[in-house]
Amino acid sequence: MKTTIGEGKSQIGGGPLPRSALPSVTLDLLPLNMSLGDLATQLRAGNPPVVGYLAGGRLKLDLRTVFPRQDEMLFRAVHAVFGREVK
Fold first, then answer.
1. 75 and 3 in contact (C-beta within 8 Å)?
2. Inter-CA distances, 49 with 22, 52, 64, Å
3. pLDDT tens across the length of the chain (87 residues)
4. Which of 16, 17, 45, 77 has minimal CB crowding within 10 Å?
């Protein structure tokens, strides 16, 4: 899996038409031996579930939505899927 730091925008506001977006930092994941859809599915099925979005041929995890105390949990969740990818 190739992992890079990227940029994103987080929609803020309520209802069907959020009116503002904040710049955000993303963790961009590119699997080497599985599809992006499979990666997204495996991360969502993990414990804790990790939800990202597809853009630019990558699965992007918006780090604005991750509290510092959750960094290790996120690392472990991504690492668990990475371990399955290389087998």
1. no
2. 24, 10, 16
3. 899 999 988 877 766 766 788 899 999 999 999 999 999 999 999 989 999 999 999 999 999 989 999 999 999 999 998 876 544
4. 16
| Peptide linkage before 48 cis (omega within 30 of 0) | yes
With CA atoms as reference, report the closest residue to 25 among 40, 43, 10, 3.
10
- Would strands 20-30 and 2-12 be described as parallel, antiparallel, or unpaired? antiparallel
Output the CA–CA distances (angstroms, integers) from residue 2 to 17, 22, 58, 85, in the order listed.
34, 26, 10, 11
Rounded distance between C-alpha atoms, residue 14 and residue 87, angstroms? 43
Three-state SS sequence of 5-45 = EEEEEEEECCCCCCCEEEEEEEEEEECCCCCHHHHHHHHHH
**How many whole angstroms separate alpha carbon 15 and alpha carbon 36?**
29
pLDDT per residue over 17-37, tens digit each? Answer: 667 888 999 999 999 999 999
